[in-house]
Amino acid sequence: MNENSLNLGSSSRRAFLSDFGLGCTGMALGAMLADDGIANAQAKAESPSGVPHVKPRAKSVIWVFLSGGYSHMETFDPKPALNKYSGMTFDKTPFENPLNSPLHKKRFRSVASEEINVRDVYPTIYPMQVGFKKHGDSGIEISDWWPNLARQVDELCLVRNMWTTDNDHAAENQIHTGRHRLDEQQPCIGSWAHYGLGSLNQNLPKFVVLGGPTRSTTQTSIDSLYLGPTHAGVPIAIDPKNPLPFGQRQSSQTLEKQREEYALIHRLNGLAAVEYPKDRELLARIHSYELAFRMQAAIPEAVDFSNETMHTQRLYGLDRDSTKVAGQRLLAARRMAERGVRFVQVFPSSYGAWDSHQNLKTNHTRLCETIDLPIAGLIMDLKQRGMMDDVLVVFCTEFGRTPGLELRGGGKTGRDHHPNGFTIWMAGAGVKKGHVHGATDELGYHALGEGHYVTDLHATTLHLLGLDNKKLVVPGRKRLDIDHGSPILDILA
Question: Residue 173 sits in a domain of what CATH number?
Fold first, then answer.
């Protein structure tokens, strides 16, 4: 067999010679394929160089997502008019009836027909279920359900005029992908960050997922789709003994034996890569074998809290049953960011936990307690470690809740899904501190002005990582303008 008979291109020839020339020491080929694109021209076309488009402000992102849709009016966007006009219908207030606003049809996309789906149009005003107070030097109002986070308010940048279109829980995918469930799906925000940036730690994934996806229908929230499986999120469990399914060496197998086994797999995969240079699944498999080998030591260490001080563990609420789960995931997120993971997606609570159609006061009181101390602890911990200049924290949900009382099933104590206006916040690298951007109307119904569709949040996050969302393109794939979004310039420090 000679070089001509193999008909190798220059890139494939380098991959072939690298594979057989380096032998066992060539096991880094998988990561090189993903990061450097040396295996073939197709890999080069699909994987950017990792060179930022603009000067990066953040090295890593911790993206915290609360599933189910927390109420913006009981968390970060007080609306005293709801108390003043409680029990009245929208048309009895001195304000414009939000149901008559052109923004309603512009931003509302019901999956079912309007005749049978009454969501988002409940007209009877339901009062706020909690009080608000001003906090910090900034005087930003936060509800009384967030006493610990309120003490960190001068670190936060609130965006109160977010909006989306899906009024059902497929919006959990939409906040991460930018697409309504009736449209062709797109890669998630974490995958675009992975696709656009090089690695800071060759022993850990660039995109780690903690606590999710929340169930099979939300897999899209961490999926890379046409970017290829190399760029998908890697779910990690908070268990040093078994953080990754099938990711531990069997006790009967020595490290040297496993190294030899992986070397053989690597060489066989390398032969296949030469024969099928455009097989993205194969390239991803080569990368995953190599990464899995290295992760066996790195991942358990990253989720092992035994070397964290008791002060730090208490800071995240690991000593309390109510806050332990969220606290562990957020502490693990800090440790991942500290070790160079580019994008950490955290689900502190279970699927739909914040979905308070009934008993909103009871549910939100309990749920805020589970996350308030840990998220405040994360911010304090990042500050004391000097990481706020390098890490961006994004705190979001899929939509808000209706200003009107949900009446389905004789409801008297809850709010329905509300995509027309809600609040997220950011903190850390590159964003203003103690700042509020945008607003909803007096009743908390519509995001005022143009507002910000969810891909504006994506564009802002990627911009702070040094990426221009409009330049993240794949040959043969057309993205819509709304997919790209625009950075929220007002919130940039």
Answer: 3.40.720.10
Neighbouring CB atoms inside 10 A of 307's CB total 7
Answer yes or no: are the C-beta atoms of 62 and 393 closer than 8 Å: yes
Q: Which of 429, 436, 331, 432 is nearest to 373 (CA)?
A: 331
Written as six digits, the tokens of 238 are: 């908070």
Does residue 455 fall inside a structural domain?
A: yes
Q: How far, in Å, CA of 412 to CA of 263, rounded?
A: 64
DSSP at 92: G
Residue at token pair 């940036």: 197
Q: pLDDT per residue over 384-424, tens digit each?
A: 999 999 999 999 999 999 999 998 888 899 999 999 999 99
Both 173 and 321 in one domain: the answer is yes
With a CB cutoff of 8 Å and minimum separation 6, the contacts of 4 are: none
Rounded distance, CA 331 to CA 314, Å? Answer: 11
Helices 280-302 and 324-338: crossing angle, nearest 10°? 110
* pLDDT > 50? residue 459: yes
Residues 332 and 357 in one domain: yes
What whole-number distance in Å separates Cα of residue 196 and Cα of residue 286?
Answer: 20
* 3-class SS of residue 40: coil
The reply to whether omega before 213 is within 30° of 0 (cis) is yes
Question: How much is the pLDDT for 160?
Answer: 98
